[in-house]
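[audit] Reproducing an earlier prediction to check determinism. Same input, same settings, fresh worker. If the tokens differ from the archived copy the diff job will pick it up downstream; this log only records the rerun itself.
[audit] input (187 residues):
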Amino acid sequence: MKRAIIFWDFSNFNLSMKGRLGRQADGGINQFNYRKFAERITEGMDLIRVYFACSSAPSEEGMRRVFEYIDHIPHFYLKHFERAQQQSEKQVDVYLAAQMVAQAYENSYDVAVLVSGDEDYAPAVEVAQQKGKVVVAASLSNALSGMLKRKADRVIKLTLDGGSVPNDIHTTIDLSEFIEQKVVCPS
């Protein structure tokens, strides 16, 4: 069985999910099932670890609760970076790229699943491939850079409105499968 490690850029992913998670107009709270999604994108593989990298400003207290929850999911390793309010998130990209390369050199995985569409990862993808690793990019189509799409061995196209359809090179997964609504009773 192939060994897989997920390299998850939460900031990139979260931008795609804006408005779908958290408190909704009907009073319910939508939560994403991170564990179930990780299991789905590594189906048929042995999930070794999920490097889950994120950043937040001190004013984003709600995000800190999400990160605390994620930190307790089996196989997940959370790396959180503090940033100033409008600061860019390069630490997340650099950290995940470094982990992808380091773990390739350590032979810790056979398949790297990158949950991001950011072209900044292309050099790390190339190095991992030079070490004989298969790299899968998972991203919403509108967030997937052309360069990363060309470099990745496989692409998982994430949608928020369609079904899940596999083919030889691409798989499409509907993220709404992993959104769970919690009903909040009025007090």
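[audit] rerun output stored. Observation attached for the diff report: Residues 24-29, 165-169, 183-187 have pLDDT under 50 and may be disordered.
[audit] end
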